[in-house]
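Researcher: Next entry in the queue.
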Amino acid sequence: MRNRASLFQRRYFRVPFNGPIEFQILKYNRRYVTHLSSKYGPGRGHDLGEDGLSFISPYSLPVEMIVRVDFELPGFGRERILARVVRSRPVEAGYLTAVQFLNFHGPRREKIRNFITSETRKNYRFLKYL
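Model: Structure for this entry, 130 residues:
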């Protein structure tokens, strides 16, 4: 029998997100990485959820690295969020990196939730006919 926890990995629904992303490396192994903190890495969004996002980047980021991600939510504004790398694996276009948002609550979290809701409504308009 399959482990039930492996069937339900995520706590929150995710929607496709194809916007540009910039990330800034802040910490690794609980130490500030000052020689990299002024550099920004490019990325292209893959999907977005209430507690994290994934993006494709030309760089492989190690698990547990702390980064600040900067991205634009169409119709909702710009977000700069502290995040922890939870997974990074090679794909055809670079590396698919998943991050979990840190210290993320209140109006900013509500903004992401509203964006996900609006995107879900756009993608599933036919549901009202079922």
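Model: Residues 12-125 form a domain with the Thrombin, subunit H fold (CATH 2.40.10.220).
Researcher: Noted, moving on.
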